[in-house]
Amino acid sequence: MRPSKRAPDELRKVTLERAVARYAEGSCLVSFGETKVLCTASLEERGPPWLRGSGKGWVTAEYSMLPRATHTRTRREISSGKPSGRTHEIQRLIGRSLRAVTNLPAIGERQITVDCDVIQADGGTRTAAITGAWVALHECFTWMRGRSIISVDPLRDHVAAVSCGISKGTPVLDLDYAEDSAAETDANFVITGSGGLVEVQGTAEGAPFSEAELLDMLRLAKAGVADLVALQKQAIAS
């Protein structure tokens, strides 16, 4: 039995609440169980310098964890003068995931930054952030189209993410902290609405995992992302 009493293929309760930040062009508060992330998308009328003159825009992301998102206070990274390696890796992952489904020339020479701030962490913060960031980005593009800044929707597909793992010898979906901290294998899958793989991150914490176990986790992840995409569609339709 999982600590959360869920079935092996069962997601935590997921909610996606859009338009939660008054001043942002797009926003979403995403919850995966007790993990909660605020995602805001901000439009800048100029792109990064290396794209100047290319006619192409850019989507990037920043990620941070609030000091009391965890059981004990963590020091703000601004105090140390630079983001940690983990933060840098996660925000690059979020940016890559969003760009994988975005038609960048359709934005024009502009940049959209999606900020993902973890309010409360209970495992799966990066996967929740990617799932909510897509909704925030969609809202930003809707805002831009409503003001004739762009003429077409730059999003080519949905993208969402979910964790999987091997816990007590069993492949399971969407690990919370209690399960993740004791799992034999931990993996994250970023998958598009059409089923394309954007990124797969997998680590054996003890014994190596087998190809069969990897395929079992991929099967769980694809089903989980299909459910997350359905929730994204509901969120943007409401």
Automatic annotation (TrEMBL):
<dbReference type="InterPro" id="IPR027408">
    <property type="entry name" value="PNPase/RNase_PH_dom_sf"/>
</dbReference>
<comment type="subunit">
    <text>Homohexameric ring arranged as a trimer of dimers.</text>
</comment>
<comment type="similarity">
    <text>Belongs to the RNase PH family.</text>
</comment>
<comment type="function">
    <text>Phosphorolytic 3'-5' exoribonuclease that plays an important role in tRNA 3'-end maturation. Removes nucleotide residues following the 3'-CCA terminus of tRNAs; can also add nucleotides to the ends of RNA molecules by using nucleoside diphosphates as substrates, but this may not be physiologically important. Probably plays a role in initiation of 16S rRNA degradation (leading to ribosome degradation) during starvation.</text>
</comment>
<protein>
    <recommendedName>
        <fullName>Ribonuclease PH</fullName>
        <ecNumber>2.7.7.56</ecNumber>
    </recommendedName>
</protein>
<feature type="domain" description="Exoribonuclease phosphorolytic">
    <location>
        <begin position="159"/>
        <end position="223"/>
    </location>
</feature>
<feature type="binding site">
    <location>
        <position position="86"/>
    </location>
    <ligand>
        <name>phosphate</name>
    </ligand>
</feature>
<dbReference type="InterPro" id="IPR018336">
    <property type="entry name" value="RNase_PH_CS"/>
</dbReference>
<keyword id="KW-0698">rRNA processing</keyword>
<dbReference type="GO" id="GO:0000175">
    <property type="term" value="F:3'-5'-RNA exonuclease activity"/>
</dbReference>
<dbReference type="GO" id="GO:0009022">
    <property type="term" value="F:tRNA nucleotidyltransferase activity"/>
</dbReference>
<dbReference type="Pfam" id="PF03725">
    <property type="entry name" value="RNase_PH_C"/>
</dbReference>
<dbReference type="InterPro" id="IPR036345">
    <property type="entry name" value="ExoRNase_PH_dom2_sf"/>
</dbReference>
<dbReference type="InterPro" id="IPR001247">
    <property type="entry name" value="ExoRNase_PH_dom1"/>
</dbReference>
<keyword id="KW-0808">Transferase</keyword>
<keyword id="KW-0819">tRNA processing</keyword>
<keyword id="KW-0820">tRNA-binding</keyword>
<dbReference type="Pfam" id="PF01138">
    <property type="entry name" value="RNase_PH"/>
</dbReference>
<dbReference type="InterPro" id="IPR020568">
    <property type="entry name" value="Ribosomal_Su5_D2-typ_SF"/>
</dbReference>
<feature type="binding site">
    <location>
        <begin position="124"/>
        <end position="126"/>
    </location>
    <ligand>
        <name>phosphate</name>
    </ligand>
</feature>
<keyword id="KW-0694">RNA-binding</keyword>
<dbReference type="GO" id="GO:0031125">
    <property type="term" value="P:rRNA 3'-end processing"/>
</dbReference>
<feature type="domain" description="Exoribonuclease phosphorolytic">
    <location>
        <begin position="10"/>
        <end position="138"/>
    </location>
</feature>
<dbReference type="GO" id="GO:0008033">
    <property type="term" value="P:tRNA processing"/>
</dbReference>
<dbReference type="GO" id="GO:0016075">
    <property type="term" value="P:rRNA catabolic process"/>
</dbReference>
<dbReference type="GO" id="GO:0000049">
    <property type="term" value="F:tRNA binding"/>
</dbReference>
<keyword id="KW-0548">Nucleotidyltransferase</keyword>
<dbReference type="InterPro" id="IPR015847">
    <property type="entry name" value="ExoRNase_PH_dom2"/>
</dbReference>
<dbReference type="InterPro" id="IPR002381">
    <property type="entry name" value="RNase_PH_bac-type"/>
</dbReference>
<dbReference type="InterPro" id="IPR050080">
    <property type="entry name" value="RNase_PH"/>
</dbReference>
